[in-house]
């Protein structure tokens, strides 16, 4: 069996594992209970993710993990988005673990085994990309990645965390202000750049998964909602709108998954930014179409559509907006073309 075949099989098995776990432990009742309790992250669900090996997937074997690559987890992130999981998987199991794994030393030796065991939450602050840090209210460790390439680790007691009202209560946000010196892990611009790409591509995967769920909920609803004695899904205009949205969501999914798989390629940063921007567009369209086709019930608290409406709006505004990412890509392209012409 070839290596690509093995990777594809591993990814399928990881997605099946994720879907099975979330189907049993992250249903609508669970999500509503989290909102009622005012607490998104729970040790119970996070512990189950850790027990299955999903949290430690990117952790090296010597620290208690599986030593997999990001390419193994693109489908897992898509599934997490589809289930609106209220846990910092991208922030801890992908971003923080990748930073710690790239900078071996006392900080990594201390925290990676704890993260792998599901005993600690770590988040990453990426300056302009994260003025508000997701799940910082639950974090035991904050990794601060500066534009100059310096990377510092701050324990909970070395930071001030000020919660900020978030549109999506299942994805809490906070301002993080260091009050201690922290531990300098090193200066590495390449690690900072790679983490940015992982954040963008990972958020794109989550967005695509949430958009997919919005599409599924809408198709399910128009198939049973009747008007003039017929399901509204039988009307041509509704069919066309659903079909157009399905194409957008499929393309966003393809772009997001491939970008996350390619973060270490030479053009990985551009692909990640483009995928996040495209996923943001698809999510915005999914929000509008889902609300319109659900009619009045889509606006109600009792119906569950709002869980995904808020999730895609929050994710679209995180790690760079569609407008900002497209502007940066355009500037980069213009600079490259100008340089080529001068040469």
Automatic annotation (TrEMBL):
Q: Where is the signal peptide?
A: none
Query: What are the UniProt keywords, alphabetically?
Result: FAD, Flavoprotein, Oxidoreductase
Give the matching InterPro entries: AcylCo_DH-like_C, AcylCo_DH/oxidase_C, AcylCoA_DH/ox_N, AcylCoA_DH/ox_N_sf, AcylCoA_DH/oxidase_NM_dom_sf
Task: Please verify whether the record's keywords include Flavoprotein.
Answer: yes
Query: What cofactor does its activity depend on?
Result: FAD
Is Flavoprotein one of the keywords? yes
Origin superkingdom: Bacteria
> Which stretches make up the Acyl-CoA dehydrogenase/oxidase C-terminal domain?
203-334
Q: Where is the Acyl-CoA dehydrogenase/oxidase N-terminal domain?
A: 33-119
**SUPFAM superfamilies named among the record's database cross-references:** Acyl-CoA dehydrogenase C-terminal domain-like, Acyl-CoA dehydrogenase NM domain-like
State the similarity comment: Belongs to the acyl-CoA dehydrogenase family.
Protein's name according to its UniProt entry: Acyl-CoA dehydrogenase family protein
Species the sequence originates in: Nocardioides humi
Q: Name the lineage.
A: Bacteria, Bacillati, Actinomycetota, Actinomycetes, Propionibacteriales
């Amino acid at each position: 069996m070839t290596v690509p075949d093995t990777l594809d099989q591993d990814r399928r098995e990881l997605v099946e594992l994720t879907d099975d776990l979330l189907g049993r432990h992250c249903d609508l009742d669970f999500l509503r209970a989290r909102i009622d309790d005012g607490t998104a992250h729970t040790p119970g669900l996070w512990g189950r993710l850790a027990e299955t090996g999903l949290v430690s997937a990117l952790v090296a074997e010597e620290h208690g993990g599986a030593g997999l690559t990001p390419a193994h987890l693109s489908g897992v992130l898509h599934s997490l988005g589809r289930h609106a999981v209220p846990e910092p998987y991208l922030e801890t199991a992908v971003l923080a673990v990748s930073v710690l794994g790239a900078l071996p030393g006392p900080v990594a030796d201390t925290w990676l085994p704890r993260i792998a065991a599901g005993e600690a939450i770590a988040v990453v602050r990426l300056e302009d990309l994260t003025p508000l840090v997701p799940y910082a209210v639950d974090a035991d460790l904050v990794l601060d990645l500066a534009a100059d390439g310096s990377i510092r680790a701050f324990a909970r007691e070395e930071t001030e965390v000020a919660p900020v009202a978030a549109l999506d209560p299942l994805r809490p946000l906070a301002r993080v202000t260091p009050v201690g010196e922290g531990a300098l892990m090193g200066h590495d611009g390449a690690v900072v750049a790679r983490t940015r790409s992982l954040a963008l591509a990972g958020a794109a995967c989550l967005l695509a998964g949430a958009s997919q769920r919005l599409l599924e909920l809408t198709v399910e609803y128009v198939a049973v909602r009747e008007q003039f004695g017929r399901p509204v899904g039988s009307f041509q205009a509704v069919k066309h709108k659903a079909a157009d949205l399905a194409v957008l969501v499929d393309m966003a999914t393809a772009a997001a998954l491939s970008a996350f798989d390619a973060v270490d390629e030479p053009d990985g940063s551009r692909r990640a930014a483009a995928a996040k921007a495209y996923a943001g567009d698809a999510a915005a369209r999914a929000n509008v179409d889902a609300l319109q086709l659900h009619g009045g019930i889509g606006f109600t608290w009792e119906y569950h559509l709002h869980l995904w409406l808020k999730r895609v709006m929050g994710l679209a505004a995180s790690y760079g907006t569609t407008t900002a990412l497209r502007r940066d890509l355009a500037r980069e392209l213009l600079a490259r073309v100008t340089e080529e012409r001068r040469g």
